[in-house]
Amino acid sequence: MKMRAAVLLEMERPKPYSQSKPVEVVDVDLDPPGPGEVLVEMKAAGVCHSDLSIVNGSRPRPMPVVLGHEAAGVVAEVGQGVDHLKVGDHVVFLFVPSCGHCEPCMSGRPVLCEPGFEANAAGTLFSGAKRLSRNGEAINHQVGISCFAEYAVASANSLMKIDKSLPLDEAALFSCAVVTGAGAVLNTAQMPNGATATIVGLGGVGLNALLAAKMLGAERIVAVDPLDHKLALARQLGATDTFNASDPDCVGNMRDATGGGTEYAFEAVGSVEAMDLAYRMTRRGGTTVSVGLTHPEHDFALKHVSLVAEERTVKGSYMGSCVPVRDVPRLIGLYQRGLLPIDKLISERIELANINEAFDKLDAGDTIRQIITF
Q: How sure is the predictor about 220, in pLDDT bands with cuts at 50, 70 and 90?
C-alpha cells in the first residue's frame, strides 16, 4: 500500500531543521504484515528526544529511516499466527520487542531482549524483514516501529492492547515517556514512599519521573534544568525545589538546601554533563539512575572513592526496566484514577507535515510533548 511517512535521509544536517529539512514527508510503499506481524492505522505519535537524537546524529542508525517510536493506533490487519490481537483493537507500541525465550526475557527483564536489540540496531522488524520501501529501495524501521506515518507494520511482540476508553492521543505517551520516566522511579530505583529525589532534565521523560515521585509521596522533589519555564512547570507539577542547571553554583546551592543532596537522583537528559550533575546531587548512600541515552562514544567518569566510601549506587534504566504486560495497564490505571496526570505534559497537537519544525522546538526546549495526530 501507498502511504505518507516521515523519512530521514541523512543525519547531522544543520539547524534550524525547518530550513535544512532533514526529514521529508513523502509517499512510501508499505508491504502487508508477514507471519507474527500486525498492520496498525496510526492515530497519534509523540515527538521524543530519542527521535531527535537520530536526526542530530548522537544516536546513529542506518539510513534512510522512517522515524518515530512512541505511538498508539488501531489494528487494521493481522498476519498469520497472531491470535492475541484482532482488527479494531486499540494498541500502543513498545520500542523493544520481546522474544520471551532469551535469558533476559526468561529472567523477567524483557526490555533487555537480545534478539529484539539486534533487530532494532539493524533497522528491521523483529523477524529481520523490512516492510518499508521507496522507489524500490528498502527503508529502515526505527526500533521496529516507524510511527511517523499513516500506517505501520510491526511485530506483534512490539504491540500492547489497551483499554478503548483511553483517548489515543494520550495513550501514545504510555508507549515511551511514561514507562521510561515513571518506570525509572517505580521499577529501576524502586524508590520507597516518602523518600527524597532529584530530577535532572525536565523533558517528557524527566517530568514523568517527577510525577511518579510525587505519587509516591516524596518528601522532597528537586527539579533541575537550564530553562526557567520548565522549572516553573515542575513547581506546578509538584517539585518542592528548583535549580537552574546553568548556574555554576547549582550543585553547591542544591546540596546546601537539601542537607547534602537527595537519596535518589534521576538523569533524564542524555548527556554526560547531566549525569555528573545528578551524581553530585545524590547524597551519601544514595542511588543515581540514568535514563538518557548519549552518543556511543561518550564516557562517564566518577570518583571511585566516593562510590566506595559513600556506598553509592549507579544504575542504568532502559524503558523504565518495565515488564510491559504488567506495567502498561498498571500505569494507565494510575492515570485514569488521577494519580499520574500525564495529560498535563502534552504541549500541543501537530500535523505530520510540521515534523521539522517540531524538532526545532524540541531542540530548543520550547515544548514538552508534541503529539502528531492522524
A: very high
Longest dimension (CA), the chain: 62
Q: How far is C-alpha 195 from the geometric centre of its chain's CA atoms?
A: 24
Between CA 330 and CA 93 the distance in angstroms is 16
Return the CATH class of domain 179-318. Answer: alpha beta
Residue with cell 523533558: 203
Predicted structure pTM score: 0.97
49 SS3 class: helix
Neighbours of 265 (CB within 10 A): 29
Tell me: the pLDDT tens digits for 89-101? 999 999 999 999 9
- Three-point CA angle 156, 158, 162, nearest 5°: 85
- Could you count the other beta carbons within 10 Å of the beta carbon of residue 285? 10
User: Cβ(245)–Cβ(277) under 8 Å?
Assistant: yes
- pLDDT exceeding 70 applies to what percent of the chain? 100
Here the cell at position 195 is: 523518600
Give me the helices (H) in 145-287, please: 168-171, 177-183, 204-215, 228-237, 250-258, 272-280
> Grid coordinates representing 289?
539512575
Q: What is the mean pLDDT of residues 16-33?
A: 98
Portions of the chain given CATH number 3.90.180.10: 2-175+341-373
The whole-number pLDDT of residue 226 equals: 98
Mean of the per-residue pLDDT values of the chain: 97
Kindly indicate whether the domain formed by 2-175+341-373 is annotated with CATH number 3.90.180.10: yes
Residue 201, Ramachandran bin (φ over 0: left; ψ between -120 and 50: alpha; else beta): left
pLDDT score recorded for residue 104 = 98
